[in-house]
């Protein structure tokens, strides 16, 4: 049996019911609504000899960027590979990309999905997996361009809004904030459940220092994208950043407790957002109580993963926050081993992950000179270990605090001035500038 899906893609060995199940799971995944894996499991149970559902499942688990899912991902990949002889070229493109990912070649896998999307521009899964790969790799312009390639093929097609939402995020990461906001808002008019599009607009407001608007925007759109969302925790993280920029640490902590922690930090991406928020509060000197302990078990279970240096740095934040020197040493040793290995993550660990972990550990020990020595040289190339501009801002945040605590007036002034150039009305940045001025006044006294 062969059939064609909503977007004109041939699906090998599939019954009409299997194709309908794949379509429904794909649209859920595009919207980041729960639970596409459960849906695809039901499809596989009904027709286990169809290659594409297995590739779908493996792709979702791979791009979760969490080694905890590796066993299940490999099981699905091996099932897809066993069925590859009956797959078509498009499906074999997915399978080949997944094998590259499983072998540690994240950049090769992302490009393989990208090539599949070039050949089959209405293959939304290939587009989305490549988009997530570009995010994981810090490929800002490819987040934009890989989506721009396929947009003309999606006019009027089911899911057009999701492609626009991805394009909006790519435009934002490429610095085209006006276009990003326009496209992101258009995506939300086509599908109000599109949490990724809402997230793209939130990024625009974060990067342009529009915290009050950001709070209002997230609150206004949340009733549409938050129910059933697998991604809501990250949009709540953005809301917490807006409140923190305005000096409202109490509301940021409430969001941590009630919303960001909603999934109980069961996956790495949730742990990342939990660490990223608590670290910013910690660096500013706000007490966070025992909240670091809510992240401890999750990060300790992943301390030896060596799969994604971006995650490792966020684990280090938690270990520093906990004051767990043994965990810090163990993590640094593991990241050092990763840096000596092969594959995409080895490059990430060498270029950014290892010095970043050393710098954050030094900050936690009160060795601000060493923190600056480790972090300042890597800030300009931090995109090499993935994430967004907003996420990587933690480097500038930490450096600004380190410079102030060190009493390095020129560096503190430079960091505050740099931040004010991007966000001149930010209360947080203005507070940093005042602290820098106070350092100068103290020295002049």
Specify the CATH class of the domain at 1-136. Answer: Mainly Alpha
Portion of residues in beta strands equals under 5%
Q: pLDDT below 50 for ≥5 consecutive residues: which ranges?
A: none
H and E order: EEHHHHHHHHHHHHHHHHHHHHHHH
CATH architecture of the domain at 1-136: Alpha Horseshoe
CATH topology of the domain at 1-136: Serine Threonine Protein Phosphatase 5, Tetratricopeptide repeat
Helix-residue proportion: over 70%
- Mean of residue pLDDT values: 96
Q: What structural class do the secondary elements suggest?
A: mainly alpha
Instruction: Characterize the main sheet.
Output: 2 strands, antiparallel
The gyration radius over C-alpha positions equals 22 Å
Task: Please tally the helical runs, counting DSSP H or I stretches of 4 or more residues.
Answer: 23
Shape: globular
Strand arrangement in the largest pleated sheet: 1-2
Number of strands: 2
Family: Belongs to the TTC38 family.
Keywords: Repeat, TPR repeat
Protein name: Tetratricopeptide repeat protein 38
Organism: Craurococcus roseus
Describe this protein's structure.
With 445 residues, this protein is mainly α. Among the domains are: 1-136, Serine Threonine Protein Phosphatase 5, Tetratricopeptide repeat; 139-233, Serine Threonine Protein Phosphatase 5, Tetratricopeptide repeat (Alpha Horseshoe). The protein is built from 23 helices and 2 strands. It has helices spanning 16-31, 36-46, 51-62, 70-82, 89-102, 106-119, 124-137, 140-148, 160-173, 177-190, 195-207, 211-225, 232-245, 249-258, 268-283, 293-300, 309-322, 325-339, 344-364, 368-375, 389-406, 409-422, 427-444; strands at 2-4, 10-12. Strands 1-2 form a two-stranded antiparallel ribbon. A hairpin with a 5-residue loop joins strand 1 (2-4) and strand 2. The model has no long low-confidence stretch (mean pLDDT 96).
